[in-house]
Predict the structure.
Amino acid sequence: MVIKVYRRELIYANHLSFPEDIFYEDNCAGTIWMLTARHFELIEEPLYYYYQNPDSTVHVINRSKCENRKTAARLLAEGCKEHGFTETFHDEIEFRFTELFYSTTLFSYLSGIQGESHLQQLSYVGALAREMKATFPAFRETPYSRELMGKEEKELIDLQMKSNLLFYLKYKLMQTVRRIRK
């Protein structure tokens, strides 16, 4: 999983697996696997070459991949609950879910989606915000959200929580201005 190597015993002893048939499966599995581990080692030696494929998951945005990211986040929350991590690491899991399910999906979708009408986009990001609020109503109040989210990201998210339409219009205007400046 990109920058980590796991012992086989950890995976088998804890009945861990990758979610199947979705992209971003490592976003779900990696967090749960790390929470399960009790010992970590840092190996300074580079052990593999990571090739950046221009057609890879992270370079092509479409609705299906955004849905996969949301599924991976839901599986992350379920897996953490199943393994008993939710109580001990509630704020950390909530923030990871917020990043994966909501903020990364929201901004990658809006910046990369092609072929959908403004109404479709507005509907999609509105549903995303509603599910985020339903899953973790106080997600903006965790220490991690307050400390680790960028100022612009926080402002945009706060705006969307007040008005999906105003958020959408502001974000699209910002994108247009940035494109013109380039």
Notes: The helical segments are 8-13, 25-36, 63-82, 90-112, 118-135, 143-148, 151-162, 164-181.
